[in-house]
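Regression test case RT-17, inverse folding.

Input:
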């Protein structure tokens, strides 16, 4: 108990130190507080629309999944994850692209501020979802990168879409970019591990690990093929069963 108390006591001091650091940085660099605060409010307001876009997407995907289950007796979506890039990430990406850092440039040039990752059981589900999204009249497909038909050299697979979805606000409609990544569970398992390894080695992964990762990607691909074969057999069995209910 004593120790816990001591720890909670220490925390505010740390925060104060960093606040003082920020304050002196602002003073040293002649920052205008009002300007800075307005800019921060501008970023906060500018990015909120991406949260609305993700809510729209989640509703659309939920409906598609449930309707698909109703018609085909199968859920194409295993799970959905969504995220919004934090303002720092957006600013760094603008800087990398050599663009002036402001919210208008972010909206115009950064297409992955809002991201949805959809995980499916089978490769065929990925393309079913893609075609269902493509068929929705309010969604515009801006870009398709098919890393399943054309995997990356390291073995990475997924279907990537950049779409635009309308968000209805009180006084206007805004078309908001969303990056959609669709992959199987096996592809997702591989990608999460590869991502962790990549950052653990600060992007300089040793050759032998790269080779092993490529082998793991091939194994994930084999697993997807095998699962598909099993599913096809189950589907045939179920159809035969329907014709001859007593079997
Ligand atoms: P950014 O990487 O966002 O600048 O975009 P890009 O134009 O290179 O887009 P791309 O569609 O190739 O990749 C976008 C996202 O896909 C990345 O941010 C990752 O989430 C994922 N991704 C792409 N390549 C890989 C990969 O080799 N490994 C893993 N784990 N994820 C990847
Ligand atoms: Mg990205």
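Golden output:
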């Amino acid at each position: 108990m004593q120790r816990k108390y001591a720890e909670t006591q220490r925390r505010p001091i740390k925060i104060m130190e960093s606040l003082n650091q920020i304050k002196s940085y602002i003073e040293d660099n002649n920052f205008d507080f009002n300007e800075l605060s307005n800019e921060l409010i501008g970023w906060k307001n500018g990015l909120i629309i991406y949260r609305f876009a993700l809510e729209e997407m989640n509703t659309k995907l939920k409906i598609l999944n449930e309707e698909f289950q109703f018609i085909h007796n199968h859920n194409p979506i295993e799970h959905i994850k969504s995220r919004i890039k934090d303002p720092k990430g957006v600013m760094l990406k603008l800087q990398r692209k050599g663009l002036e850092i402001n919210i208008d440039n972010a909206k115009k040039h950064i297409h992955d501020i809002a991201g949805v990752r959809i995980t499916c059981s089978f490769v065929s589900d990925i393309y079913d979802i893609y075609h269902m999204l493509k068929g929705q009249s309010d969604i515009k497909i801006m870009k398709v990168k098919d890393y399943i038909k054309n995997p990356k050299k390291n073995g990475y697979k997924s279907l990537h879409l950049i779409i635009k979805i309308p968000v209805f606000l009180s006084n206007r409609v805004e078309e908001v970019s969303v990056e959609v990544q669709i992959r199987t569970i096996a592809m997702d398992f591989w990608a999460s591990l590869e991502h962790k390894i990549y950052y653990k080695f600060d992007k300089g992964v040793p050759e032998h690990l790269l080779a092993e990762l490529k082998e793991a990607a091939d194994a994930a691909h084999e697993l997807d093929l095998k699962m598909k074969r099993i599913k096809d057999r189950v589907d045939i069995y179920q159809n035969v069963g329907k014709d001859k209910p007593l079997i």
